[in-house]
Amino acid sequence: MTHLSQERAPVLEALNRYKSMRVVPFDVPGHKRGKGNRELTEFLGEKCLTVDVNSMKPLDNLCHPVSVIKEAEELAADAFGAKHAFFMVNGTTSAVQSMVMSACKRGEKIIMPRNVHRSAINALILSGAIPVYVNPGVNKELGISLGMSVADVEQAILENPDAKAVLVNNPTYYGICSNLKAITDLAHKHNMLVLVDEAHGTHFYFGEGLPPSAMSVGADMAAVSMHKSGGSLTQSSLLLVNGLSEGYVRQIINLTQTTSGSYLLISSLDISRRNLALRGRDIFDKVSKMADYARDEINQIGGYYAYSRELINGDSIFDFDRTKLSVLTLDVGLAGIEVYDILRDDYDIQIEFGDIGNILAYLSIGDRILDLERLVSALSEIKRRYAKDRTGMLSQEYIRPQVVLGPQEAFYAECESTPLEQSLGRICGEFVMCYPPGIPILAPGEKVTAEVLEYIQYAKEKGCFMTGTQDSQVNRIQTVKE
Amino acid sequence: MFYDRYSGQSSEPNTDREGVIGLELWFTEQHTDNVTFSIKVDRQVYSGQSEFQRIDLFDSLEFGRFLTLDGYMMLTEKDEFIYHEMIVHVPMNVLPDVKNVLVIGGGDGGAVRELVRYPSIEKIDLVEIDAKVIEVCKKYLPQTACKLDDPRVSIHYADGLKFVRSKKNEYDLIIVDSTDPFGPGEGLFTKEFYGNCFKALTEKGAMVNQHESPFYPKDAVAMQRAHKRIIDSFPISRVYQAHIPTYPSGHWLFGFASKNYHPIENFDAVAWKKRELKTNYYNDKIHVGAFALPNYVKELLEEVE
């Protein structure tokens, strides 16, 4: 096949050709290029509705691409240095799930840190794979989970030589990276696949001075959230593959992915890939500089700690993504979630999330220095108006999970709804987590401990948005019948 | 006859009428989606794009020279005195012994021109984000920019929001002479900015701000938002008005916010008279009367109080 240039955008070009053909639509979607739903067209715009179309020969088919989507996926693979790239339209969640399900069948083991996103453990429920958790390191001062140390991964590998894969966050939500290269080499030496959750790492493929990407160190698969730092539409994502059969992975994807892939999402992936390939270096250079600037300004306020590469310790913080603006708020006497709420309610500033001790502001090419000044000034004001003594602030400790049952077994076991306070010592049958960040406090199959209950209570008091349980108030949880 | 329309060397209107006979050149600003305001332009004096905005200067027969930023009217030679007198003399005759003044925005120099008339003022920090505005005004708008070289004036090219963040208990008066809250001036209409100003003021200090218009709905919403945020930050906050022909609806508001001083109760009319400053709009009766607001404006303000 001829090698297309990164300046091309095959899906975009095909949609433009299709529009100019003025084809009469007697197919779905039923809004018929927006004419059947004026209110929607008025709200989203006619340009948007005219390309909300169905799969057809000139536009290819996401489930089995043979023409323009195939070309667009090849261009993406080329841009990201992968053997193959799949366009994903069910979110990075589905990319993570497809990755896990491609690597592990029922009963097979996968080594992963416990601070994974819920989508990874969801994949275990779907596939029946068994997790082997590696405790992530913890930074006591920041109260956040870090990366996995290479020695801990090695121990898990030696103790579980039958494991099929190792899953790594690159980076964590907070920007922390494990030694991905060393872990990849180690896993490969033991014939295990390396799966990388790069939901927060799209820019690693394009920026300079950023941590290494999964494909660059020879990992086998990576789930890349193009819609986060890559600029594509929400819910669009990429699954990158190096070491597995393209056809098998596609079968796995098609188990759960829609057969009506949205061309809005698909074209946004195509256009964003082109933008990153042509301009990514400049873009992320600017973002890094903006984040560095904001960190300096925030650290000058006093009380807040906006951390960066000084944390690097050669192991559990092997690298740090300096585009992430993570700030420790505890010394101002406020939980991160409190600062998050005040920023939105009082200052009309929406940040990505606040947890017990930290806030995270997500920076991208869409930001302006003027807006960063607002964020910094608001933080300075929040300190002036609300600062309290730090006493009594709970720092977020990593709670070592006690896994009793596999996630699938526990989830499908006969469960009963149990008041939180009576659940001590029982086995949990569902998830409990704060969202964001969506890292489970309890996952199916884990024992409910006093530590966990105290943490849930505190998070609720501070106003964290709790989710995962059948009971929307999170006053009761499902526990496995004894 | 040919002349270089961009050289702008002369501030005299073009007297050679022959060259422009029949020339229908108009500056038009959209005041709402359905209302426009136009001034017949004699010639364009300057046009340039800075890092932040587009800057234009025109000469007109009716309003003299006028400055626009991103196509929005900032000032005209004919009516700028109203705005600048009202934003300076009102606080200056309420607060005792003003020594340190911070002017945010106001790169045209009009507020500074009025301020330097008070000998008690020792220091004026002018913080303008756009150096180009000052450069252009110094060159083409001497009527307002004439006192920017006064030895008491220090010009800082910075974002006002950032500049004031690190200041504490430093200024007796802060004048927020901003553009509209859409564009580079939007940070100057935020709660964090007003809170930072509160912190930067001394105990006897006050902040006066350009407070948008109550008349057209879009401006009124901006006006209400600003008011809400100011009352959240200051114990005393009052709004006053002036009539400015070239601003949307002509009905314009200012905000007076302070820690301790009331704009009418603490107004020192005797001191004002003793100063013997000649003004064209401001006087002691206007000072008090400007705080008397129409009912619809009062209602808009009360809605957010």
Automatic annotation (TrEMBL), chain A:
GO terms for molecular function: transaminase activity. Its cofactor is pyridoxal 5'-phosphate. InterPro entries: Orn/Lys/Arg_deCO2ase_major_dom, Orn_Lys_Arg_decarboxylase-I, Prn/Lys/Arg_de-COase_C, Prn/Lys/Arg_de-COase_C_sf, PyrdxlP-dep_Trfase, PyrdxlP-dep_Trfase_major. Signal peptide: none annotated. Keywords: Aminotransferase, Decarboxylase, Lyase, Pyridoxal phosphate, Transferase. Residues 223-237 form the Orn/Lys/Arg decarboxylases family 1 pyridoxal-P attachment site domain. SUPFAM superfamilies: Ornithine decarboxylase C-terminal domain (SSF55904), PLP-dependent transferases (SSF53383). Belongs to the Orn/Lys/Arg decarboxylase class-I family. PANTHER family: ARGININE DECARBOXYLASE. This is Aminotransferase class I/II-fold pyridoxal phosphate-dependent enzyme. The lineage of its organism: Bacteria, Bacillati, Bacillota, Bacilli, Bacillales.
